[in-house]
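Re: export button greyed out
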Amino acid sequence: MGGILRILNKDTRALPVRIRDVAKKLDLSVTTVSRALAGYDDVASATRDLVIETADEMGYVPQHAARQLRRQRTETIGLIFPTTGSRFSDPFFSEFIAGIGDETSRRSYDLLVSVAPPGEAEERAYHLWTNSRRVDGFILIRTRVDDWRISYLTKENFPFTSFGRSKTLETSPHIGVDGCSGVKDLVKHLLDQGHRRIAFIGASEELTFVGDRLEGYQIGLEEAHIAYDPDLVFEGDLTRAGGYEAAKILIERSPSPTAIIGVNDLTALGAIRAAQEGGLIVGKDLAIAGFDGTVAGEHAHPALTTVYQPVYEIGRQVSAMLIDLIENQAGSELDSLIRPRLIVRDSTLNSKPVPAD
Amino acid sequence: MGGILRILNKDTRALPVRIRDVAKKLDLSVTTVSRALAGYDDVASATRDLVIETADEMGYVPQHAARQLRRQRTETIGLIFPTTGSRFSDPFFSEFIAGIGDETSRRSYDLLVSVAPPGEAEERAYHLWTNSRRVDGFILIRTRVDDWRISYLTKENFPFTSFGRSKTLETSPHIGVDGCSGVKDLVKHLLDQGHRRIAFIGASEELTFVGDRLEGYQIGLEEAHIAYDPDLVFEGDLTRAGGYEAAKILIERSPSPTAIIGVNDLTALGAIRAAQEGGLIVGKDLAIAGFDGTVAGEHAHPALTTVYQPVYEIGRQVSAMLIDLIENQAGSELDSLIRPRLIVRDSTLNSKPVPAD
DNA sequence: CCTCCCATCCAAAACGATTTGGATAGTACA
DNA sequence: TGTACTATCCAAATCGTTTTGGATGGGAGG
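Workaround output, generated via the alternate export path:
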């Protein structure tokens, strides 16, 4: 189909301009051109201006590999998604990557991305990128309570920051979100609405943030002197499908819970679906809430009560922190805790009538 | 908070093993080690085995920058998201990036990612990565009818493939999805259900795929001898909010449409919300359908009728095609058209009663 | 014994930038 | 007139690979 495609031929590809070409054109040494472009003050300002202008109009851009080899820095940061390919559609990720991307390009860094499920492939990926000096540092996500990545990178003395803390080391540079107090606020809100049987659909407690949120749930109940009931706690898998399955079972319990907290928005959205299929009106018969503050939750029906964390902004900060670390700029705080914000919407408001059908 | 953080010090960071170190340990030349590892047959097999084993146990990995400089190839492909940071949460993207990521790492390529809104910043980004030889090729997404990127890369003779074709060149390597016939199928389905006033919420027709889908809508109506009514066509912006706004207006028209097609799933989900807020039962009072086949649509309430395109698989193929192109492997087809598949769900089935409330 | 041919190895030259450690010429000052 | 200093420039080394173009020695064949 579609006619003849032009064949790409490396030999015909325009050769990029090298610093040598600029030097030759101006009858200057390579050294001077290099130093002029780098802004050193041992080159006459007239010369500097001329060099900059000429380099610009010749379209000269330093070849990355050469510079990198000489300077032994890549100006690149690495991000390895700890998940396997096809089941990877958490809206969280694209927000986060956008935050990182904006900050890195602002500081003229690049972002190298890979996907590897936790385990052997993940280890290989980190080994490769550290040993080949492919990146200057890593951003870690979905930190785990016992996190191989953190001990490895620390041992290698390789810069990294993470979204979410870990218990692997006493401290390591990261941006954390206080999931515990976030869920505590949420529980308090549900208690205010009169709920007493509140369920929690979690996920693998290997993930730090899951443990944090579960803790908030427990403390919240405790403070209201409500006994913790293990039968009301389920383990999902952070997906919508996981939330759906878990909620289905919870709903058929008796006595069934009057409120369900999903460890993230996707889980909660799955639970909403299960409830609606079971003929329940969410917000009236059953309250459901999530955590994340994704757009999907905002536009759900009914709109989802959730605990909002500024994912885009966290992406920006975590990469700013990493670049500071790489460049040894002591300035920034290396250990910040963001307090997420409760957003109450219809899915937990029984006072507001649902639209008549 | 958090105690004393260990300060990273470049001087104390373990020096990576160089090929020279391996050579010295084995009392061989650097050349021989290099050739042994590369699998040339001018090194004795006993020597080769020894080299490989030693290199492995010393943890030797070639430094990427040096290799890249010498070979003048990066084994990296570039992906620049043509969108601006914060409003960037289409689930489409994460699926797509996962497909690309899996294929590139299978062929031991890396993936360099950036985010730049169409316009000047985008041009700068492409210039930089081509001139600095930062990547070996590009994957283009959201191709536009008149696409600067395609003419630029073609002019520079720089390898690229795209998801979605463009009219900028007669042909260029890409994976296309036949959005026209996809929407035509959808229209036919709606006609079968008895609909006659079918609306379409699109987006900027600058985007090729939007035009394709709109064309399918028009042809579908034409074949059923239904006059095209411009009042039933709206322009959204591919987001949920855009779909919501457009649908709100459409619903209050009189006579109002009995079915709405969203150019993508997000638009359709926005429309569902607008309909529900307006007191309509989606599937009964108003049929709504989308395009993409995202999980979000599958789990919506009611589940969304849509036209499914295998985004993960397309990501894989488009990057396989690019790598073939870079390596001059003539093998693969450079111009493939995938026919998407109609998935009918409750949002367009008025026969099935909605759950009683 | 001599020649030729393999099989195996290696020294040195790239690749394209940055950085080190001067060189050169003009100026100010004694 | 010398000397010291400054402003401006540059040759050469360097980063760690891969690749080019031999070198070397032993065995086969005459």
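The domain at 179-308+342-348 of chain B is CATH 3.40.50.2300 (Rossmann fold). The button fix ships in the next patch.
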